[in-house]
Amino acid sequence: MQKQPITYLEYLKNPTLIAIVIALLTTGFLRLQLLTGNPETDGGIYTFASQYFYHALVNGEIIQGPPLFFYQLITAWVYGLDVNQFILLRAIDGLVAVTASIVLFKVILKESDSTLFTLLFMVPLLIVMNDLEVVMYGFRNSIWAAYLPLFSAILIWQNSTKKDKYSFYLIGGLVSLGVLLREPFLPFFLLVGIAIFIGYGWRVLFKYLIGSAVVGFGVIGFILMLRGSNLIELVDSYTRYGDAIGRQQWKFPFLIIQLNWFIFVTSSISIIYIVKLYLSDKKLVNMKRFCFWLAITLLPLVEYYSKLGLMYHFSNSFIGLAGLSAMGWKLVSIYESKKIQASTILFISLLSLVVILMTLKEQVDK
What we know:
The chain is an all-alpha fold. The protein is built from 19 helices and no strands. Helix 5 runs antiparallel to helix 6 (115-129). The longest helix has 28 residues, at 85-112. It is globular. The N and C termini lie far apart (58 Å).
């Protein structure tokens, strides 16, 4: 039997196409507005690191001094081009962020099982995640570069079963790559390992660890070769770098919650609903999945409270809050009436519209 050709409308409903469009209109658009901003402290440090790596490599010198800075190392090639490297590095970071946004869209789509919810939810989420306070002008840090393999690992996990032969090797390699791109994400490596052990057992955990070891030791071995095989110097670089980082006294992030109210409203309602549903009937809620997303929410607070406590440290919690919001919607769509589902979607639509209008006003005012 001959397959029916895909109609134009069906093609427009393609989730991947929607993800690409949303990523370009949010992350892509906002990053373009920030591209030509003045040099700032963090961006300057990481841009200089790329320049230093390029200078050392082309002159055959041994790299020493900075920590791993893997993201800066793999982007050092821009200094071989006759361009404005500040702008190009920010553009590369923007492209990486757009790609990671597409993958995150797919993750939330899988978790919520609703294209409409994901569309309405992801627009304001990506807007707040690409705010000036979070990303500055781009290439401020390697967070979005690390997001890309980490989001990819979550997406593969969402589509995997215990019987899959190679998925968990790949997940291990991707999580390891994410940690190498941004070392403060190391707790997520441990979290994923614990989650895999609880959900799938020792054998699958062993696959995860093998994949992690291959990528992790492979990359570190290559970098050590560039650093004259001086492991002690690399370890010392983290001690020096850690001593230079400021600390803050404990404080509740009232301002951050106020500025990013959208994600806190949706996730708070979802958490209350999930807990209420679980208390009414434990069989209705997958608490292991709930605890996984909750842990992803809470782990970034370790970095937030151990450093200066800036917005971009806290914003890593938004991923877990997004997962909880998506999980809440999926349960609403399964167990609640059509009337409640429609009211919930209308509520999310209004919240999303407010965030979009506020962002457009800010761009016009500039």
